[in-house]
Specification:
The structure holds two protein chains of two kinds.
Chain A: H1 14-23, H2 30-56, H3 71-95, H4 105-126, H5 152-185, H6 188-197, H7 205-238, H8 250-277, H9 285-316, H10 319-330, H11 334-346, H12 354-358, H13 360-387, H14 402-425, H15 431-437, H16 443-447
Helix pairs in contact in A: 2-14, 3-4, 3-7, 3-8, 3-13, 4-5, 4-8, 4-14, 5-6, 5-7, 7-8, 8-9, 8-13, 10-11, 11-13
Chain B: H1 3-21, E1 45-50, E2 59-65, E3 68-74, H2 87-90, H3 92-96, E4 106-109, E5 112-115, H4 118-134, E6 141-145, H5 151-163, E7 169-170, H6 177-187, E8 192-195, E9 202-206, H7 217-228, E10 237-241, H8 247-251, E11 254-256, H9 263-276, H10 293-300, H11 304-316, E12 320-324, H12 334-347, E13 355-361, H13 369-380, E14 386-389, H14 395-398, H15 405-410, E15 414-417, E16 431-432, E17 443-448, E18 451-455, H16 468-480, H17 494-506, H18 512-519, E19 521-523, E20 552-558, H19 571-575, E21 583-584, E22 589-592, H20 593-599, E23 605-611, E24 614-623, E25 630-635, H21 644-648, E26 679-688, E27 692-693, E28 708-710, H22 711-720, E29 742-747, H23 756-764, H24 772-776, E30 785-791, E31 798-804, H25 814-817, E32 823-825, E33 831-833, H26 843-847, E34 854-855, E35 882-883, H27 889-901, H28 914-918, E36 924-928, H29 935-940, E37 945-946, E38 958-961, E39 963-965
Parallel strand pairs in B: 6-7, 6-14, 9-10, 9-12, 10-11, 14-15, 15-16, 20-25, 22-24, 28-39, 29-38
Antiparallel strand pairs in B: 1-2, 2-3, 4-5, 4-16, 8-13, 17-18, 18-19, 20-26, 21-27, 23-24, 23-26, 29-36, 30-31, 32-33, 34-35, 37-38
Helix pairs in contact in B: 1-18, 4-16, 5-16, 6-12, 9-10, 9-11, 9-12
Classes of the chains: A mainly alpha, B alpha/beta.
Chain lengths: ~450, ~950
């Protein structure tokens, strides 16, 4: 893969866009394969660990009484959170006509789908008898047994499957004109596949009209999901009694956290792409600046929620809540809590500086910290809260095992292998929408008029 | 199973099994191919017998399903235990079906025990005996048995006399010889009396661990519960004087920590104060003339005020009961101590009321330890050529290390053991002739005068074993050259002998034999024997101890889970925690905080304990309550011989017994063994072996899980009645119960923390054993646990025992969160759990505030043939599902079925949960909460009733009754 892309000075032309995007779909270089190998190996390790866990039992993971949930649900919520930015960018920002979204939304949408696909694995990994996980689906059966619609886990099933299907459709619809462009330039079997996926797109006026309508409709449909999915996921906790979980704060708190981590993940993915693909013309400083601002704002809101959480705990006078919070702040898992506060509250403050917001390095560092912080946020909600709940007899410390660590690390590999695959077979920058933002190609301007 | 039904069923099947039981069919673990007419699939038969896990001799009824015993319960008719059973009795099944049990006779070949045939094995013994008899050296044959107060003992005595061997040695490691000697000295009666706790107003115990193992723990816990439990505004007082806060001390209203060995002095000081204050007759003054209360206070570390307080409480008792002679405090001065205690008894009018001679306890027939020691000495001198060791006799483990039994046994040319399981002694034996388990045999056992328990086979033997009585008969006949039906040993089987002995006993009653079998024995009123008190001066100063004078006194106390180690093969017992420490599996050395700090030892650090007679390495348990001059180690923990232990414990240590540290000395007066006899020194080894402790903390953190109320307040409440209950505001309509609403009431005031319910539940509900590592990591599977909550000073806490099980909440947090309705609410108020439906999200486990839901982290194994014990009425759960207490749903179903067959409703008391059934303290009551007249309703509406974590609003179906504490105590 060639990284030495010459930097153009002026805005790109339509032809530049098509070329720049299609170039990313060419034969990959050694670096790409090296990455694929590393990620593939880690993924294989994760699959092996999961197989072992299914074979020997959930005991292979470090769960226990009282932490019946631990790293799997942590990672589940983390990945669902990651999955938020994509739809937010494609749907809400589309409806608000935030033009800076155009250059990032495609990759962000792909990230969303892959993140939800990763998240969706965790309930399976987590279930004691994953082979019966289908019991959670409301399928007609002769026993007339239905899932328990009062259970937040059933809400999860609906929320997540809805989210996954809507965002997938939305993603595919958005891809149609670009795939048509791909079809037009490719040959052989690729062409046949792209032709199928392009759904006979010809770029006619009526097609464009339908396309626009459909896209707008899907955006409107997806918008509430951005808020609902993570609210529902948060109710897994808020609906439970556990001190540290039982809070009405959780839905907005989780949605905000999700957007926060989602944008961080977008940056973590886009910054290297911008670098390697030479997309500086499309992902400009102003784009970075906008995303930096969003991270900063969501980070500040999150800090506010953290303060609220502490305040309400203190103000409630509830002995269990207070004891739980005090223990989380001071005891065994305090390091995780303070790490979270640092990553999510302190680190993003750098982004008050415009220089930091436009510096890819700074943004990258902050984003990584935010991701770490957000993973630990979920960890801190789940593991320490459970470890110090109502009943002192069973209080205990969760210790991860090799198996569950390998599975969690493997989930990252799974996500990255999907994403790495995606950037090689699909346009990760929207050709159509980027072109829309460019000045119309006027012959005279390009060649000085002759 | 209700008593009436039990009679009905036994009436039909008792005789049938009696016939089947004597056959040596053996070897078939599978149900019969040709069905036995008496075996009705799905219907249990119950057989009464006697528990032989310790010499207490409780009555047992064994539940036989399809030919195999699956559960033991106390015989409700038996005068000793009245339906209750202790933890060891409950776990006896695990010995019956133990994977390591001898499958048949074993002979030592090339250093290892190898299976041999019965004929060959018996011939070996016969030949040797005949040879010795021929040579006129019959006296070089020794027969050692456990306490056999019935026919087997008589047969053995006949056998030894006929063959001209040494007289039989009745060996019990805990023989309580001093109690017997003190009775002889003070009351002029050479016997151990029957202590009647329930008649006492005040019990003053000097180290008698009557809740754990002392004499007859089930009986005494029952008595304790009746005298001490709050009922009708009345409640007795118990004071325990002991250097260690044992389980018994934790149950006492007052625990007085004394310097080890000063019990006798304290008893005399109390008596002295009583005499001085006119609470005891003047004549007792003679005995305490030389006692200076202040000096005793100094020596014992018990303040003068406390001694006076004890004297005033005990002196007022009408009657009181003073007990002593707990194993841990039995030193060379034990008899003197018990004489002092007997004087106290005499002073409060105990004889004839709380101290009954006449109903003498079988322990009085134990051969004093000094004679056992003499036998070991004879062995060491080569005077013994054949040593026959009866079942459950394990001297290699239970004799003090100073006696060097193993070395002595090496000098004996033929050591024959009748043990059922491999142990330290069979490791020395040349021949093992495995006895049948006591659940498979005929027999009888009289725990005290007037109570003759009858034993019958409750199923056919698991392995190829022979009842010891029969083996002896066959050996004896062969040696004498006689044949069956003739000579001094004419009986063909032990059963024949037994019936010949019992014939006169049951003659009076029509159909007497069968009725005795059904009842479990014959009970007779024994007239109380009046005794006179002889008052004389007592020299009860603490004994001089062996070892480093600067060392710490070793307190070796019998574990209530393993007794002398004979019960240690049962994994259930290892996994039920020691209630005070909440430790499971490995043994530990309890070290006072001060010493631990000095040595720099923390919990789990391996410490080397050295005495002049041996050394032992054990993990430390740092105790804030233990007397600073002592260390304590439980007796009875052992893994040796059991391969099964390796499955549950990593690198099981071979030596765990504090007896190895003791010298071989005896109390010169009674001839009893000296357990309080050595000082030990401790040193750090640097190794670590953390204990698996189930309870994270003993501090309730102001959560009021286990609650208490003062005695005065409880009386006032009892008069006023319960205040109007708090009304719950709910958007939902209240739950309707069309039929019954089941519930439990658990009296925290009565619970003594004996763990019997925990094991009963495990046996009834097929709860698997998980092993040490999983227990240490919160993965034990018990449906029921006993928590110990400590309040007050760390050095002197008040303890509350709280049995915690599924609360079957009306507003159950586990139910709405289950995505698949695996957790659901039944119409009868139970919180159901459908294993087949469970996906294993474990959400319910998180949301249960009590954390009583158990998850199957692995696929559980029941090593063969232990799986035979599984209750066929209860599902064995698969990996990945959640489980929890069902309130013994199978028993509820059975009770309802029975009621339906009889066209009536379930009556109060028809259904008993397994935990309730076995509870020696009767702390648990099950019943219909909808019925206002049921016992459980009455208790649940008592002013003492409360719900654990009531403020969360779960509305449990399990009500707890506050413990009643004595003000000022």
């Amino acid at each position: 893969m060639s990284t030495a892309v010459e930097r153009r000075t002026g805005p790109p032309t339509f032809a530049d866009v098509t070329r720049d995007v299609l170039r990313t779909l060419g034969a990959p270089g050694n670096l790409y394969f090296a990455w694929m190998c590393v990620v593939g190996l880690i993924l294989a390790g994760g699959i092996l660990a999961w197989t072992w866990q299914i074979w020997i039992g959930m005991g292979a993971a470090g769960k226990r009484t009282p932490q019946m949930w631990a790293m799997y649900i942590t990672s589940f919520v983390f990945w669902i959170g990651i999955g938020h930015a994509g739809t937010l960018i494609s749907a809400i920002l589309y409806l608000f006509r935030a033009r800076w979204r155009t250059s990032i939304f495609r990759a962000a949408e792909a990230m969303t789908i892959f993140a939800v696909m990763t998240a969706g694995l965790f309930p399976l990994i987590h279930a004691g008898r994953m082979w019966f996980a289908y019991f959670l689906l409301p399928y007609p059966n002769q026993r007339e047994l239905w899932p328990n619609f009062r259970s937040p886990l059933v809400w999860d099933v609906f929320a997540i499957s809805t989210y996954l299907s809507i965002s997938t459709v939305f993603f595919i619809v958005g891809l149609v004109p670009d795939i048509a462009a791909l079809r037009d330039v490719s040959t052989g079997w690729r062409r046949r596949i792209y032709a199928m996926l392009a759904l006979g797109w010809e770029g006619s006026h009526s097609q464009w009209r339908h396309y626009r309508r459909a896209y707008g409709l899907f955006a409107a449909l997806a918008t509430p999901l951005v808020l609902s999915v993570h609210s529902v996921v948060s109710w897994d906790f808020a609906m439970a009694l556990v001190p540290g979980w039982h809070s009405t704060l959780f839905a907005p708190f989780f949605v905000d956290g999700a957007i926060f981590s989602g944008f961080a993940m977008v940056l973590v993915l886009m910054l290297p792409m911008r670098h390697y693909f030479g997309w500086h013309a499309y992902i400009q400083d102003k784009h970075l600046d906008a995303m930096g601002k969003l991270i900063l704002v969501t980070g500040l809101v999150l800090t506010y929620f953290y303060l609220c959480e502490i305040f309400t705990t203190w103000y409630s006078g509830d002995h269990f809540e207070k004891a739980s919070l005090f223990w989380r702040i001071t005891a065994t898992y305090a390091w995780a809590l303070w790490l979270m506060y640092f990553c999510n509250c302190i680190a993003p403050l750098v982004l008050f500086s415009r220089r930091a917001r436009t510096s890819p390095t700074m943004l990258y560092i902050v984003s990584i910290l935010v991701l770490i912080g957000m993973w630990f946020e979920r960890f801190n909600i789940i593991v320490p809260s459970l470890g110090r709940d109502f009943y002192p007899y069973t209080w205990g410390i969760y210790v991860p095992t090799v198996t569950d660590t390998m599975i969690v690390v493997g989930s990252f590999a799974w996500f990255f292998i999907l994403f790495l695959g995606f950037i090689r077979i699909m346009p990760s920058l929207s050709i159509v929408e980027v072109k829309e933002t460019l000045p119309l190609p006027v012959k005279d301007r390009a060649h000085g008029g002759h | 199973m209700h008593r009436r039904d039990f009679f009905k069923i036994v009436g039909v099947s008792g005789t049938a099994a009696a016939v089947a039981g004597c056959q040596q069919s053996a070897e078939t673990l599978l149900p019969l191919v040709v069905p036995n007419e008496q075996i009705v699939p799905g219907v249990a038969a119950w057989f009464a017998t006697v528990c032989r896990e310790c010499p207490a001799g409780c009555g047992v009824i064994a539940r036989n399903r399809e030919g195999r015993v699956v559960k033991l319960e106390g015989n409700p008719d038996h005068p000793v235990n009245r339906g209750a059973l202790c933890i060891r009795g409950q776990a006896a099944l695990q010995h019956l079906y133990h994977p390591d049990r001898f499958a048949g006779p074993q002979g030592r070949q090339g250093g290892a025990l190898k299976p041999v045939g019965w004929d060959e094995a018996l011939k070996t013994v016969t030949a040797k005996l005949a040879e010795l008899r021929g040579a006129g050296r019959g006296r070089s044959v020794a027969l050692v048995s456990q306490l056999e107060s019935g026919s087997l003992g008589a047969l053995m005595d006949r056998w030894t006399q006929t063959l001209g061997t040494r007289p039989r040695v009745t060996f019990e490691p805990f023989g309580y010889e001093a109690i017997r000697a003190a009775s002889r000295i003070v009351f002029n009666r050479d016997a151990i009396p029957h202590y009647v706790f329930e008649e006492a107003e005040v019990v003053l115990s000097f180290g008698a661990d009557f809740v754990e193992t002392w004499l007859s723990n089930v009986e005494h816990v029952g008595g304790f519960s009746r005298m001490h439990g709050f009922s009708g505004g009345r409640a007795g007082t118990v004071i325990q004087v002991e250097p260690r806060q044992s389980l018994t001390a934790a149950n006492a209203d007052e625990w007085v920590r004394n310097a080890p060995g000063t019990e006798g002095l304290l008893a005399l000081a109390v008596l002295k104060v009583m005499v001085d204050e006119g609470r005891a007759e003047r004549r007792f003054g003679e005995a305490v003339a030389g006692i200076d209360v202040r000096k005793v206070a100094e020596e014992s570390g018990v303040p003068v005020d406390t001694i006076r307080h004890i004297a005033s409480v005990f002196g007022r008792a009408k009657p009181g009961l003073a007990v002593g002679g707990g194993v841990a405090v039995t030193g060379a001065h034990a008899t003197a101590t018990l004489v002092a205690i007997n004087l106290l008894n005499a002073a409060v009018g105990a004889p004839g009321r709380t101290l009954m001679f006449g109903a003498d306890v079988a322990y009085g027939n134990v051969t004093p330890y000094a004679e056992v020691a003499a036998l070991v000495a004879a062995m060491a001198k080569g005077e013994v050529e054949v040593l026959l060791l009866g079942p459950r006799v394990n001297p290699a483990f239970t004799l003090p290390g100073g006696l060097k039994f193993a070395e002595a046994a090496a000098k004996v040319p033929l050591v024959v053991s009748f043990a059922t399981h491999p142990d330290e002694t069979t490791a020395l034996a040349h021949l093992v002739l495995p006895d049948v388990h006591w659940l498979e045999t005929w027999g009888d056992y009289a725990p005290r005068e007037g109570v003759l328990g009858l034993m019958q086979p409750t199923m056919s033997p698991v392995g190829d074993s022979l009842p010891t009585g029969e083996a002896l008969l066959r050996i004896g006949r062969s040696v004498l050259g006689g044949e069956e039906g003739k000579g001094p040993l004419p009986w063909g089987s032990f059963e024949q002998y037994l019936r010949s002995v019992w014939e006169p006993l049951v003659k009076a009653e029509p159909n007497g034999w069968e009725r005795a079998l059904r009842r479990g024995g014959v009970w007779r009123q024994t007239p109380a024997v009046a005794v006179t008190t002889k008052v004389s001066t007592v020299e009860a100063a603490p004994p001089k101890l062996d070892g480093d004078a600067a060392g710490l006194t070793l307190l070796a106390y019998p574990s209530f889970r393993f007794y002398d180690g004979r019960s240690a093969g049962a994994a259930w017992l290892h996994e039920a925690p020691d209630t005070m420490t909440q430790a499971v599996w490995d043994a530990w050395v309890e070290i006072p905080t001060e010493t631990a700090a000095r040595l720099g030892v923390g919990a789990g650090d391996v410490v080397r304990v050295t005495s002049p007679h041996g050394a032992l390495e054990l993990p430390a348990y740092v105790s804030s309550t233990l007397h600073p001059g002592a260390v304590a180690i439980p007796i009875g923990h052992r893994y040796a011989g059991y391969h099964l232990a390796q499955k549950y414990v990593a690198a099981p240590p071979t030596s765990l017994s504090p007896l190895a540290l003791l010298g071989g000395a005896a109390d010169p007066v009674s001839g009893g063994a000296v357990f309080l006899g050595v000082k030990v020194t401790l040193s750090r080894t640097g190794a670590r072996r953390p204990l698996a402790i189930l309870q994270a903390t003993h501090d309730q953190d102001h959560r009021e899980l286990a609650q208490h109320v003062g005695l005065r307040a409880a009386r006032e409440e009892a008069l006023r009645g319960k205040p109007k209950p708090h009304e719950f505001i709910s958007l939902y309509p209240p739950q309707q119960y069309p039929g019954y609403r089941w519930g439990l009431a658990i009296d925290v005031d009565r619970c003594v923390g004996c763990q019997a319910c925990v094991v009963a539940c495990q046996a009834e509900n097929n709860v698997p054993v998980t092993g040490k590592a999983d227990c240490a990591y919160g993965r034990q599977l018990h449906w029921l646990r006993i928590e110990r909550w400590a309040e007050g000073l760390a050095s002197h806490p008040h303890n509350l025992f709280l049995p915690m099980l599924c609360q079957h909440c009306e507003v159950a947090p586990c139910e709405p969160v289950c995505p698949v309705f695996a957790a659901y609410r039944t119409e009868e108020g139970l919180n159901g759990q459908v294993y087949n439906r469970c996906v294993g999200t474990r959400y319910c486990g998180n949301n249960c505030p009590y954390h009583v839901r158990r998850f199957n982290w692995w696929n559980s194994e029941f090593p063969a043939p232990l799986e035979v014990q599984l209750n066929p009425d209860v599902t064995v759960r698969q990996l990945g599902v959640m489980e929890k207490c069902t309130m013994c749903i199978q028993r509820i179903m059975a009770g309802k079925d029975r009621a339906r067959d009889e066209k009536r409703l379930v009556r109060d008391g028809d259904i008993q949960t397994a935990c309730q059934q076995t509870c020696p303290a009767q702390a648990i009551t099950f019943g219909n909460l909808k019925d206002d007249r049921s016992e459980v309703s009455r208790l649940a509406h008592s002013p003492r009733a409360y719900h654990v974590l009531e403020e969360i609003g779960t509305r449990p179906s399990v009500a707890y009754l506050r413990k009643v504490v004595r003000e000022g105590a």
